[in-house]
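Our preliminary data section would be incomplete without showing what the modeling component actually yields. Below, a chain of 257 amino acids is followed by its predicted structure, encoded as tokens that our downstream tools consume directly.
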Amino acid sequence: MTEITSALEFLRSQAVAAKSPFFAATDQVPNAVWLCRDGISERIERDPPPRGHRVDTLESLVDSVKHYHDPGATSLWCSFAEIVAVLDDGEYRASRITFDLKPSEVLGEIEKHAGVSMDHSSLLRLLRFSLAGCYEDYPDLLPALRQVKVSRSQSSDSRLEHGDEQLGREIAAKITCAQALPDAVILEVPIFANGALLDSTQSIECGIDIDPFAGTFRLLPAPDAIEQAKQAAVRAIFDVLSRELADLKVPIFLGKP
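Predicted structure:
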């Protein structure tokens, strides 16, 4: 009886399922589904999926916002990582156009070496190759650094008295510069590597610290100088968008949506 009962219950559930309404869809008609019930199918139109475009340039972002702009429903958000245009700000905030910002290699080199001790040749290599073009207002900087000499000397003396033996050692270090080094250097640094943004630079003030005892050199950005340069670069993009989209009166914010 148990097997017969199970079979009857299975047939009953299949009959109920056959009468239950269900939805059907096809890839050929992506904007509609069919509600099937009681042997009748009803076509139901559905909203298109939210936009998820990604653009490669700031110019393309401006053009796409002008194309898809919906008055009262569009807003822009600017951060160091990305610029996001929200096209349905009054609804789900799911339809967006995103412009990913790529930090420049030059900025990365400064952040990587900031405050890090390096030998003489490593500092020269950093300035000559990684930061080339960032200190054009200081044409004598590299030649002056090449001529920096660090010398160390050591002397010792001993004293022997009855019941007392002492050994003294004195280490002296000296830095010799054929040309005077500037107290600070203003580096003009591209913050972003996206297309035309690579031509826009921000100032980062740095000093060069020499440790004569260790014979090492350090590139020392001024306090918060790197963060201020990042914020200034984002603000510059904010200003460009404000000018380009002034006629649309699109609200623009600093931050993330």
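The first helix runs from residue 2 to 19. The mean pLDDT is 85. Preliminary results of this kind motivate Aim 1 of the renewal.
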